[in-house]
Amino acid sequence: MTKEILTVYMLYALTRIRSIARNAKITTTQLKEATKEIKVSVEHDKEWNLAKILLRFNDELKKIVNDLHCHHLCEFLYDIATAFTEFYDACYCIEKDSKTGNILKVHMGRLLLCEAAAMIMEKCFYLLGLKSLTR
């Protein structure tokens, strides 16, 4: 993939993450409140993989501070986008009625994992001097 396509791919992943909470009709305030009450379980392999990648954030920043190579941040963003795509394909955050489209269940733990991914991705884009998108 070219650099331009990778950037679009990573921005698209962030936009998809942000759309999940919107589709669930969950506000940022509700997500913040949920962090006080709900634990994020990582029972599925794809949840576990995404969580492990997100936990690398501090180490990635330290690596950049030490060697001044910002491309590490781009590689990290790509890893998040790829892990999120696999997570999104395998783990439902919102369950809807197939006939009516009404929301049957919202998996708040998974939404919180999505929110963590979005926050880290936004910080990475900011550090790279890129403006992130919400829609």
UniProtKB/TrEMBL annotation:
The protein's name in its UniProt record: arginine--tRNA ligase
SUPFAM superfamilies: Anticodon-binding domain of a subclass of class I aminoacyl-tRNA synthetases (SSF47323)
GO MF annotation terms: arginine-tRNA ligase activity; ATP binding
Domain of life: Eukaryota
InterPro entries assigned to the protein according to its UniProt record, in alphabetical order: Arg-tRNA-ligase, DALR_anticod-bd, tRNAsynth_Ia_anticodon-bd
Reactions catalysed, as given in the entry: tRNA(Arg) + L-arginine + ATP = L-arginyl-tRNA(Arg) + AMP + diphosphate
Any one GO biological process: arginyl-tRNA aminoacylation
Coiled coil: none
Residues of the DALR anticodon binding domain: 10-135
Keywords: Aminoacyl-tRNA synthetase, Ligase
Enzyme Commission (EC) number: 6.1.1.19
